[in-house]
């Protein structure tokens, strides 16, 4: 597709690119031309320019969502505890890490981020139709 820029439309604008955009727009260039010069979408240029005219700043807004209750060191410790001692309980790890702020759901999130999942004991094989038929024959014979 001609005219499309591949791969650059989801990455964040750097401070340098933001400065270029503001400088070019202040010089009177069109949004289309500025987007072509910095190799970004017109929406990115327009949003950057609107933020500059509205707020007078180029600072990126912080992301949404809750702040993390654990540090990176605590995250690594949680994962290491789960790897070294697979049978250890959640409350034991929580006491060992020393952070009483994070909730049990976040504990599982930390383990999922490390690609660890809970291990459920194997209960029984699912019966295939052949197994069911053989089991019924055995039952009827007795």
TrEMBL record:
InterPro entries, per database record: Homeodomain-like_sf
Protein's cellular compartments: Nucleus
Top-level lineage group: Eukaryota
Main location: nucleus
GO cellular component, one term: nucleus
SUPFAM superfamilies per the UniProt record, alphabetical: Homeodomain-like
Name assigned to this protein: Transposable element Tc1 transposase
Organism of derivation: Trichonephila clavipes
């Amino acid at each position: 597709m001609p005219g499309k820029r591949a791969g650059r439309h989801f990455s964040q604008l750097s401070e340098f690119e933001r400065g270029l955009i503001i400088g070019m727009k202040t010089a009177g260039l069109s949004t289309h031309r500025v987007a072509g010069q910095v190799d970004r979408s017109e929406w990115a240029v327009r949003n950057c320019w609107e933020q500059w005219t509205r707020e007078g700043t180029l600072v990126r807004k912080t992301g949404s969502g809750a702040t993390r209750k654990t540090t990176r060191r605590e995250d690594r410790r949680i994962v290491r505890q789960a790897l070294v001692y697979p049978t250890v309980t959640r409350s034991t790890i929580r006491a060992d890490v020393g952070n009483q702020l994070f909730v049990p759901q976040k504990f599982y999130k930390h383990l999922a981020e490390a690609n660890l999942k809970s291990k459920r004991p194997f209960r029984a094989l699912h019966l295939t139709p052949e197994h069911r038929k053989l089991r019924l024959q055995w039952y009827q014979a007795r």
